Amino acid sequence: MTTIQQTDFGTLRRWVRRTQSEHRERGATAGNIYFTVLFIAVVGGMLHRQLAVIFWPTGPNASELAGTALVLAGVGGLFLALRRLGPLGLSRPAASWFLTAPVSRRRLLTPSLRLAAIGAGVAGALYGVAVVGHVAVRPLPGAEGALLPVAGALLGILILLAALAAQSGPTWGGGADNLAGLLLAAGLAGFVLDSVVDAPRAAASWPTGAVGIATAALALVVVALLAVAVTRLAGTPNDRILEAAKTAGTLLDAAFGVEPSFVTDMLERRYWANRRLRSTRLWGRLPILTGQDLLLVLRRPRRLAWIAGAAALPALLGHAPGWLLAAAVLIGGMIAGGVSTGNVRTDAGNPVLLRLLGLDSRSAVTQRLWVPTLLAGLWYAATLAMLDALGDLPAGPWWALGIALAPVGAVAAIRKARAGFVRNELLPLDTPMGTLSPGPLVNSVIGPDVLLLGLPALMQIAQGHPLSWTTVLVQAVVSVVGARAYISGTTAHDRVELTAAR
Amino acid sequence: MVDQPAVDASGLYVSYGSTPVLIDVALQVPIGAGVCVTGENGIGKSTLLRCISSLQRPDQGRIRVFGNSPGSTPEFWRQVATTVEPPTWYPGLTVREHAELVCRAHGQDPDEAGVDAALESFGLAGHADAIPPSLSSGQKQRLTLAITLLRPSSLLILDEPEQRLDHQGRESVAAMLSQYVSNGGTLLMASHDDVFSAASGARIITMESLATPATAAP
User: Fold this and answer.
1) Around A208, how many Cα atoms within 13 Å sit in the side-chain half-sphere?
2) Helical H segments across B130-202, by residue range
3) DSSP one-letter code for A24
4) Using the beta-carbon criterion (under 8 Å), do B97 and A358 form an inter-chain contact?
5) Which of B93, B79, B73, B108 is nearest to B4 (CA)?
6) Contact by Cβ (8 Å): B14, B168
């Protein structure tokens, strides 16, 4: 048997860094650091008031229930985010060259673990500060005030270790994801409940000593588990690391190209790659593309459940200004309608299948509009009926206004799906903050701009007057006329492709 | 109009930057004929097929498909089926459902159109419930061909259909193309495999010979 000598990874990494720095311009690294620090200072200076409101308001403004909901949503959300990222990963070049090289796996992966631990710790600490800032009674005893963010950081690292175990574990990762999803949902439900009931504020006195003991115990657990994680680092399966490397690469591509669709496409691909499907007959009585959209929606029951649950979220804005509540409702319907627009996105990106289908763009888009209309209509009706029942809206047939809004959310969702890639070739704009590429901005408003068709509903909610059937009728007419105008203006009977040739 | 060719192209010029690819190229394919364009890599076979499929505009020249300018109209794409460009598959739709979708869009009953038999012939019956992105490149190529052949069309434009197919697959596809032409369809393809082209019932024409007007006999 041939013995392969391991290369010292530290030496290898130093050589790579030295070689890379030789190709870099002199002072480039210092320049990057300077600009990063300057950017943080400028943005921090501009947003320090808003940041204070988020992390440390002038007085506690949330109930214990809201605090518990914050913690649950934070734990679930952080776990899911870390799972989507890996959490243990490598850069794409490192995954290509080092993962298959005879180097120590533990030394190869330790920097990634360190970075993930710092990230999770900082996120946990900031979250801890925010929870304490919103919930804890002031004045806060100094020791507890300092210990709670530390406990948050430790909890963040503990969640990272759980995600790390799920990444290496053979089977229970899916179950852990489900549990985290439930925690996140419970947290969001807690927020909604808190906005409805008058939940009590935190107790005036803090259990002195208990926080210190709990933090110390948590620190011991984290240190012990971290040690175990480091010893088992080399056992992380290659396929999971490669997947995380692809995720990191796609995120970087999306950030550099300001193209979020790279990430959504990757998530979509992964979702379907892990599903086992059974071919079914498409419904013969429905228009063919409508049947396909319906099948797509029914094959994503969890997404449907999230969207149904999210119908309650506008209740969080029950006491906010009317225009903000109305805008949130309108955007929510667009998101609900977007559950079925994956097929339009495919056709907009590459019309080859549309050409094989041989349908004209007007028929195709009309058929594709039905399912988003159904979803958006149900969502709007459910949300507005719930806000009405909670007393956040004046009297009136709000469910009917929801149905009248259906085409607005559907057209916005379809228009958004047809937007395609960000146009980075647009002329950059010179602003006092520096040069700004308008492409991402233009792309982000394609879709939501159509929500202006919901102006009658927006005005109604913003003014806070009782809703009449006349307003419902006006909204229905505007919605239908707007949808017809959209179809007429952006499709043609004599063109297959969804976009006209430039 | 009986003598009108399925494809009638003349005086085609295409260049990529300063590199000319097609120089005064002419091609006629009568209705019901099979033509296979051959030539070394980079000589412009795919460019010619892309121009005839309306997927690329020539710098100069005239193209008629069934007497009309090729374009993006539904009428054109109901007559013409091509594999010149690879498709992006629909999310969450299986191999069989993709085939059924295309059949139904053309008003065909999937069973009568022979979806299952086509998947069987292309060696995809065992993958009917898979999603196309999970297939190998050869299987994807076969699926594209299967769907293209399943749907009704009058003109098939195929770019190297034998690529990524094993020996048995090539024989099977060649037989299907031969039957397509026998049934009155018109076939225009580019290929590197003369045996496959001959088995498809297509007359072989070299790209060099297209620099002057060339006509393929049915």
Assistant:
1) 5
2) 137-150, 167-182, 194-199
3) S
4) no
5) B79
6) no
Closest in A272, A282, A292 to B131, CB measured: A272
Nearest CB among B86, B104, B131 relative to A282 is that of: B104
Q: Spell out the domains of chain B, with CATH numbers in brackets.
A: 7-87+153-211 (3.40.50.300)
Mean pLDDT, 10 residues at a time, over chain A (502 residues)?
A: 70 84 77 85 86 83 88 95 89 85 86 93 92 80 76 94 88 87 94 83 68 89 94 87 90 84 88 91 91 96 94 89 94 96 94 95 97 98 95 94 97 94 78 74 91 96 94 97 97 90 58
Size of interface A-B (CB pairs under 8 A): 109
Nearest to A288 among B85, B105, B128 (CB): B105
Q: Which residues have CB under 8 Å from A175's CB, separation 6+?
A: none
Q: Which of B68, B82, B90 to mutate to test the interface with A (most CBs of A within 10 A)?
A: B90
Q: SS3 sequence, A107-129?
A: HHHHHHHHHHHHHHHHHHHHHHH
Taking contacts as CB-CB distances below 8 angstroms, the residues of chain A near B77 are 355-356, 358, 496
Q: How far is B141 from chain A (nearest CA, A)?
A: 14
Report whether A142 contacts A111 (CB < 8 A): no
| Residue A225 and residue A161 in contact, taking contact as beta carbons nearer than 8 Å | yes
* ipTM at complex level: 0.91
CB contact under 8 A, A342 and B105: no
User: Whole-model pTM?
Assistant: 0.86
Name the closest residue on chain B to residue A341, using Cα atoms.
B91
